[in-house]
Amino acid sequence: MTLTPEQQAEIDELRATPRPTLRAVSEGMEGHLYKANPVLDHGFVRVIDYMGDDAAICQAARVSYGRGTKAVSNDEGLIRYLMRHWHSTPFEMCEVKLHVKLPVFVARQWIRHRTANVNEYSARYSILDREFYIPEPEKLAAQSVTNNQGRGEALGPEEGARVLEWLKADAARAYDHYEAMIGQDGQQGLARELARMNLPANIYTQWYWKVDLHNLFHFLRLRADAHAQYEIRVYAEEICRLVKDWVPHAYAAFEDYRLGGATLSGKALECLRRMLAGEAVTQETSGMSKGEWREFQAVLG
Hints:
The chain is of the alpha+beta class. 47% of the residues lie in helices and 14% in strands.
């Protein structure tokens, strides 16, 4: 992970000047404020600001449902009820703003989640740093034979070394040409907004990403999943660690019902009932496709 001297100075200054407040404070999140948490080789995630805590979720729910929540004996039980029954609005009362440094190809995947406010570092105005994501050798893998959007077995040592050399050389060459194009020593210099097109997708970018807790949980359910691409999953796992300290009751419910739970189709539920009744159900008698059956078997372990 690489922080500029200016970024480190900003972090040090912000952490050295605490301010009194009357708003809800999460002690766990206060410990994470402004700190840069390393991800991948040059990336990081840091919390810039947040709003709300577990109590804010319960406060919103009790306003929304009034006396209907009186049967819930405590905040933790209420939060678990809300998560179990897919109530979303109370979780939207909490928000977090993150500063994320990430490779461009990860950013393009991340931005598919269109329920956040995003402001990205602009390569039209500023010059991108010479920082590229280069995978660890064990993360270089062949195309999966069962999943068109995933990776399979790791490449052999010889092929892996060749791929790494290409990645490093191509990135360096592209950046050399980028610098040469925008340089103004003896030439006009190409506009930055045009020169950036030559840069590879593994160069690092940065953005501020602000999202409410409901939509953050949706992001984490998909991106912290074991089937998610490794390079975005490690960011999601780091954010999970931060959220766990921010809203511990909400995160525990999320971990139980979303990350650790499973949704079954009507066919899958019927097959499960038949199995519990002692019937030997096969893919041929299940009414499921081979892909559905394989996923059902994975849920059952």
